[in-house]
Amino acid sequence: MKSRNVIHAIFVLVFLCFAPRAVLCEEVANGERNETKKVKYTKIKGGLKNLLNFARSRKGMIKELNQETKNYQKIKKAVKKGQLEKGMNASLVKKRYGKGVITLSCDKNAEEWVYKNADETYFNAEKIYLKFSADGKLTDWREVPQKMHPSK
Fold this sequence. Notes:
The longest helix is centred in the middle third of the chain and has 35 residues, at 47-81. This protein folds into 2 domains: 2-44, no CATH class; 62-144, Beta-lactamase Inhibitory Protein, Chain:B, domain 1 (2-Layer Sandwich), CATH 3.30.1450. The two termini are 15 Å apart. By secondary structure, it is of the alpha+beta class. It has helices at 2-17, 47-81, 90-97; strands spanning 18-29, 32-43, 102-105, 111-116, 127-132, 138-144.
């Protein structure tokens, strides 16, 4: 997973510094079609500035992803130790454990906060849901186990 992210980041960096101009050439030999790609790069004005801005924003993204994982670990530990109590104020939960990565609107102004590990996608990750009433009180929580990919 991480190697794919590194490759993607390298591609983005190259793209920010150079504008690709691809030329597709076709060769026909003995009735077979062979395709070769020739890619030419031309410098773009402001390419280095774009690269530096990308690096700065990347640091911010990494910081937020790390915080998402820390919040998930804190809330998971609190659930395991029985430290959550019905009736807790949402502001106290946020102060102790951080806010979930996703906030879902429920019926009559109630909401659910979703916590998950940043390394996992929403659809297959183990998640913890905290449900708050319209007046901001914790009414319930639940853990949703990780879904395994069919190939695993």
